[in-house]
Amino acid sequence: MTVLSVNINKIAVLRNSRGGDMPSVMQAAEACLAAGCGGITVHPRPDLRHIRPEDVRALGGLLAGTQAEFNIEGNPFADARGEYPGLLRLCAETSPAQATLVPDGDGQITSDHGFDLKRDGARLKPLVRELKAMGCRVSLFMDADSDDIERVAELGADRIEIYTGPFAEAFALGDWQQALEDCAKAAGRAQAAGLGVNAGHDLNQVNLGPFLRAVPQVDEVSIGHALIGEALYDGLAPTVRNYLAVIAAARS
Ligand SMILES: CC(=O)[C@@H](O)[C@H](O)COP(=O)(O)O
Ligand SMILES: NCC(=O)COP(=O)(O)O
């Protein structure tokens, strides 16, 4: 069954807008876990606009006592600049089940592209090795139409995360067959190369079912923006359960 990992960045955005601890990132994670999600995802960024290092550490402690997976996403190159306790240091401190490396620029509003491994492969390789030595599964954020999928395995990583933003955008416009085919092809190539397949970005309760039916290899979806938005109307636990029902229906 495809695992649902809930990205709780947006809980932190709301909290940070006032300071204090309302809404609580920890309470939100506990509610998602109690509702049956299989993991919690966070994507700390150097500007600390949402999830902060202390959140990552506290979540690491919470997740360590459960069967659920902790997935930390982020740009591993920010560590080298020493500006904040970046992805590798946070992984060393919290031992997540999975580290997902994403080639974000610091100023980006959100992630909008996967790795170009011809450019970044050589400097990613030692970082992948370092994370694997910590015991993390390593996933690389990749565009669905990338011609570098097999290279992910050569770098020693375990999975790709397909960047589903273009599919979600095409779906909203009602013309999504090509984007979906690109995702299905990327998943097939990853599987043939011995890699697992994750997917995420702008997935929601409407586009998730068609996506999963077309891409049967998907091990995990990480979903945040839409899920937290929908939870404002329906509640966090019912919304998580709605996503689990979409996944179960697509996999039945
Ligand atoms: C890699 C990815 O698609 C997500 O991690 C997404 O970028 C969430 O980060 P934000 O909440 O900062 O948009
Ligand atoms: N890896 C994708 C993720 O964690 C959530 O992305 P989004 O649902 O907030 O767009």
From TrEMBL:
Quaternary structure annotation from Swiss-Prot or TrEMBL: Homooctamer; tetramer of dimers.
Role: Catalyzes the complicated ring closure reaction between the two acyclic compounds 1-deoxy-D-xylulose-5-phosphate (DXP) and 3-amino-2-oxopropyl phosphate (1-amino-acetone-3-phosphate or AAP) to form pyridoxine 5'-phosphate (PNP) and inorganic phosphate.
Site description Transition state stabilizer, residues in chain: E161
Pathway: Cofactor biosynthesis; pyridoxine 5'-phosphate biosynthesis; pyridoxine 5'-phosphate from D-erythrose 4-phosphate: step 5/5
Transmembrane segments: none
NCBIfam families per UniProt: pdxJ (TIGR00559), PRK05265.1-4 (NF003626)
Residues given in the record as 1-deoxy-D-xylulose 5-phosphate binding sites: R45, H50, T110
Residues given in the record as 3-amino-2-oxopropyl phosphate binding sites: N7, R18, D202, G224, H225
This protein's UniProt keywords: Cytoplasm, Pyridoxine biosynthesis, Transferase
Primary gene name: pdxJ
Family matches, as PANTHER family: PYRIDOXINE 5'-PHOSPHATE SYNTHASE
GO MF annotation list: pyridoxine 5'-phosphate synthase activity
Its EC number(s): 2.6.99.2
Stated name of the protein: Pyridoxine 5'-phosphate synthase
Cell compartment(s), UniProt: Cytoplasm
Active site, renumbered: H43 (proton acceptor), E73 (proton acceptor), H201 (proton donor)
EC class name: transferase
Organism of derivation: Chitinimonas viridis
